[in-house]
Amino acid sequence: MGGYLTQLLAVADAELRKLRHDPWELASRAIQPVLWLLLFGNVMARVRGLAPQAIPYLDFLAPGILAQSALFVAIFYGISAIWERDLGVLHRYLVSPAPRSALVSGKALSSGARALSQAVIVYFCAAAMGVRLSLRPADVAAAILLITLGSALFSTFSLIIACMVRTRERFMGIGQVLTMPIFFASNAIYPVALMPGWLQILALLNPLTYEVDGLRAVMLARGSSVFGLTRDFTVLAVAGLAMIAVATRMYPRMTE
Amino acid sequence: MTVIGTDSPASGRPAIETFGLTRRFGALAAVDGASLSVRSAEIFGLIGPNGAGKSTLIKMLTTMLPPSAGRAIIAGFDLRTQAGQVRRHIGYVPQLLSADGELTGYENLLLSARLYLVPRTAREGRIRAALALMGLTEVRDRLVRQYSGGMIRRLEIAQSTLHAPSVIFLDEPTEGLDPVGRHAVWRHIRDLRERLGAAVVVTTHYMDEADALCDRIALIDRGRILVTDTPAALKGQIGDHATLDDVFAQMTGHAAEGGSYRDVRRTRRAAREHA
Ligand SMILES: Nc1ncnc2c1ncn2[C@@H]1O[C@H](COP(=O)(O)OP(=O)(O)OP(=O)(O)O)[C@@H](O)[C@H]1O
Ligand SMILES: [Mg+2]
Q1: Is B274 in the A-facing interface, judged by CB distances under 8 Å?
Q2: What does the alpha-carbon distance between residue B60 and residue A90 come to, in Å, rounded to a whole number?
Q3: Which of A96-105, A119-128, A169-178 is predicted least confidently?
Q4: Which residues, in sequence order, are bridge partners of residue B44?
Q5: Residue contacts between A and B (CB atoms, under 8 Å)
Q6: Is A96–B90 a contact, with Cβ atoms under 8 angstroms apart?
Q7: Measured in angstroms, how far is the CA atom of residue A20 from the centroid of ligand 2?
Q8: What value of ipTM does the predicted structure carry?
Q9: Range with the poorest average pLDDT among A35-44, A77-86, B85-94, B266-275
Q10: Which atom of ligand 1 lies at the shortest distance from residue B220's CA?
Q11: Residue B33: exposed, middle, or buried by beta-carbon count in 10 A (0-12, 13-18, 19+)?
């Protein structure tokens, strides 16, 4: 058991060390969420009825943009797996005795850590724009957990796609195609209640909806969850574990 | 250093034994019924033209590729049913680059030490010793993407042997290296055999190297093992002053092409496209 954790953390630690060697990557990734808040957020804030009446639209939007930026980072995770396969680095992992699930979970965890660094930037930016955040330790801890779960889930989903398509070119195409519906068929930038019926169904099947819903409750001073935090966490955890289970079976076959 | 752990096979048993090992890709039998036996502390060469099936055979023996048919016992463990145990007892330096260029040399070794569960108390000491042995102490904190080809190969050998494996696979470890780098790799391969008592399976396209380095050689062509013997015996079959080049040419029928198989040798980077 201790060995399992050592191996899992070894994988995550290696990813984070790479990030430390190249902090520019993080900085450049932070630009997009900031632009969404600044441009999209400030324009849409003028539309009435978009957000529930209790809170301003920018407050409503901030958790959605946070989840979105984490999604965008996570969804291209698969391409780095293909890249590692093409280089040969993947063999270094797979030839080791580490259980395959420890390798997959380690990668997933590092994706969560990556997303957290974005979260810091979104928190600062949102605060600067007048969004009223909750900084109660319990709320911040819950936000960290939600972001980590969401990123782990979507990065592992991305890894599964990578195992199926196997080439960088095909993945690039599919990555774009997947991100849009996951983002727009969610409650990230408008409430589910505003959607036509068929889209509501998709949104309710979409884990991103539950990540955003949970974040609204714990990130905002006056926010609340529509589905309840228990359900949000449960959906994310169950979906995440399912992804890891599937990826554990598929990942080792990437060397073939 | 002792290598024989409690779950290791009794010495005397071969380090590797394969029985009709086969791998098909569609209609192509990349490895076709390979049966061979490698003793412990033996340096065993796999030679053959491009596409002969050397890497495919090694990938099967390192659990990276499931065989289509046949069996293999490695370090006393069944390849098919005890893959985890096999991985614990082998080291593998693939044909492609396997050190991570975005990490430092030290970080690459740390990652390997943790993945192989080298005990925490022994970790730093072993990493330091490996860096010193490979002459990488000075550059330990430099990103590996700034290393020379020879330095990367030495680092990869260190990464694959931190856990004192009893069988080590090196797929074209000297490809793309200058003569100094090649000789350094030879020295380390011999040293692994001395220090760990490990069986070393190595592929190469340099016949002089195979001749000087290997105790025995298997010649592979189109997935089939044509012959397995000592370099001296192989040369003896051909003639009095024969070289391994002559053996290679005669047996694989690549005589007319002379060294051309060498010319089309892919560089490690070009080989990625194929991986
Ligand atoms: N994943 C794969 N899918 C289809 N064919 C493959 C695959 N891997 C290898 N092959 C084919 O199997 C044959 C053996 O390839 P292999 O890489 O084992 O040769 P090799 O002896 O290592 O050659 P080289 O000296 O060029 O490294 C080749 O014809 C190759 O094209
Ligand atoms: Mg090869």
Answers
A1: no
A2: 16
A3: A169-178
A4: B201, B216
A5: 86
A6: no
A7: 35
A8: 0.94
A9: B266-275
A10: 21
A11: middle
Question: What average pLDDT does chain B have?
Answer: 89
Structure token pair of residue A82: 């293909």
Which residues of chain B make contact with A16, given a CB cutoff of 8 A? none
Whether the per-residue pLDDT at A81 is higher than 60: the answer is: yes
Distance CA(A16)–CA(A19), nearest Å, equals: 5
Write out chain A in H/E/C secondary structure. CHHHHHHHHHHHHHHHHHHHHCHHHHHHHCHHHHHHHHHHHHHHCCCCCCCCCCCCHHHHHHHHHHHHHHHHHHHCHHHHHHHHHHHCHHHHHHCCCCCHHHHHHHHHHHHHHHHHHHHHHHHHHHHHCCCCECCCHHHHHHHHHHHHHHHHHHHHHHHHHHHHHCCHHHHHHHHHHHHHHHHHCCCCCCCHHHCCHHHHHHHHHCHHHHHHHHHHHHHECCCCCCCCHHHHHHHHHHHHHHHHHHHHHHHHHHHC
**Tens digits of residue pLDDT in A199-235:** 999 999 999 999 999 999 999 999 999 999 999 999 9
The model's pLDDT over B59-91, given as tens digits with 9 standing for 90+, comes to 999 999 999 999 999 999 999 999 999 999 999
Tokens 């099967």 belong to residue = B60
- Per-residue pLDDT for B211 more than 80? yes
Which candidate from A14, A89, A98 shows the least CB-CB separation from B98? A89
**B273 pLDDT above the threshold of 80:** no
Name A164's Cβ contacts closer than 8 Å, sequence gap at least 6. Answer: A250
More confident residue, B258 or A108: A108
Task: Tell me the sheet residues that pair with B16.
Answer: B38, B74
Question: Sheet holding B199-203: strands in order across?
Answer: B90-93, B167-171, B199-203, B43-47, B216-221, B224-229
Q: How far is B66 from chain A (nearest CA, A)?
A: 8
Sign, Cα dihedral of B5, B6, B11, B14:
negative
Nearest residue by C-alpha to atom 2 in ligand 1: B25
Q: Which residues of B fall within a CB distance of 8 Å from A9?
A: 114
CA of A247 to the centre of ligand 2 (A): 28
Q: Which ligand is nearest to the CA of B261?
A: 1
Whole-prediction pTM value? 0.92
B272 at the A interface (CB within 8 A)? yes
